[in-house]
Fold:
Amino acid sequence: MNNATKNLETLQDIKRMMERSSRFISLSGWSGIAAGICALAGAWIAHSRIKLYYEQEFPTGCAGCLKKDLFIIGICVFAAALCLAFLFTFLKSKQEGVAIWGNTARRLLWNTLLPMVAGGLMLWRMIELKQYEFIAAGSLIFYGLALVNGSKYTMGEVRWLGYGELLLGIINLWFSRSGLLFWAMGFGILHIIYGASMWWKYDRLSAMEKGNNTNEVNPD
Structure:
C-alpha cells in the first residue's frame, strides 16, 4: 500500500469522525421502509373503514364513530412506525458502535419536533372546528418542514424526503378530497423510496465493508 492510499484512507477516517460528531448518521434505511409499509397499511384500513361507512349509509350520529376510528388508526400507525424506526436505528447504532443518544441526536430531535408539535396543535384545532378538508395536506406540509429543519443534523437525503412531502402537501391543497391518497403517497410510498435508497447507499455498503474487514482479519 503506497503513501497516497494511506493518506486517502486517513482523510476518509477523519471525515467519518467529523460526520459522527456533527450529524446523526445511525438512521437505517429499514426505518423508512418500515414506516412506509405501516402508513400504507393504515391508509388501506382507513379507506376500508370509510368505504364501509358510506356503503352502509350510517346515520349522521355515527360520524363521530368514524372520526374516532380514523383517529385510532392514525395513532396506531404512528406508534408502530415510531417503534420500528427506533428498533432499526438502535440495531444500526449498536452494529456501528455509535451512541444512539447524544448532543447531535438531541439537536435533531428538537429541530424535528418543533415544527411537528406546532403543526399538530394547528391540525388539532382544525379538527375541533370540524375543518377536515386540509388535514391531510397540513400533516404533509408540517412533516416536510420538520424533515427539512432537522436534516442539517443528519443525512442529506432526509432533506429531499422533506421536499417531497412539502410538494405533495401543497398539491393536495387543490385536491383536498383525495387527502387519503396523498397521505398514502407521502407517508407510504415516499418513505419506502427514501428507505430503499438509504439502504442501498449506506446500509448495504456498511455491511459490505464489515464483511471485507472480517475477511482481512480472518483470511483463509
